[in-house]
Structure formats: structure tokens, C-alpha cells
Amino acid sequence: MIDWNAKRAKIAAKMAETGTPATISRPGGTYDPRTDKRTDGPDASKTCFAFLSTQETTDDEGRVVTYDVLTLTEASEVGDTIRVGATTYTVSKAITIAPGGVPILFSAIVNT
Prior knowledge:
The protein has one helix spanning about 5-20; strands at about 20-25, 30, 35-40, 45-60, 65-70, 80-85, 85-95, 105-110. By secondary structure, it is mainly beta. The chain has one domain (about 5-25, about 45-110). The protein is globular, with a radius of gyration of 16 Å.
């Protein structure tokens, strides 16, 4: 049986060695999609390590679509901002990779 917690620790250590420090920031409060409003609350931030890559796909009409992906050691959510170096990105889609139910790596499709 695979020890996914050990795998996560190994991945996090490797990213700490070779990744770029990043800060994930989330506006405070909670978001209500019914009203499209956010309640008041304290902002939150956490540090992690990140890798930036550019990926390509073809849409249904045959057009090439290019997008940036940040691979992270911590989870993000849609609407979060992630500062990597001098650039701030906004998360448009958040993905958790969790084999065996253990989150080991996180990705975010982002735009500047």
C-alpha cells in the first residue's frame, strides 16, 4: 500500500528546494453565490512554493487556447490571489490532486 502522506511530504520538500516562494491571499468573510456578495471577515494568507507552467489545449472550434498553471504546495480557491515574485495572479480554477483521498499537490489555473 502506498503511503500518500509520505509522498506528499517528499513532494513538498522537493518543491521547497526548487520552487519559487509564493503567497496565497484570500479575501475575508464568506461568499454567498445567491447574492454574489461577500460577508465581512479577516483576510487570510499563507505561504507555499510554486512552479509556473504554460499549457495549451484546443477548444471545440479548433482554436489553440493557452493558459498559465501554478503548481502549489498549498490549496487555493477560485478568486484567491497568488503572488510569485513581482507578479500577482488570480485563481480562475483550483484543482486538488488527492490519490487515496490524501491531498498531495495543488494546481491553479491563473491569469494576471
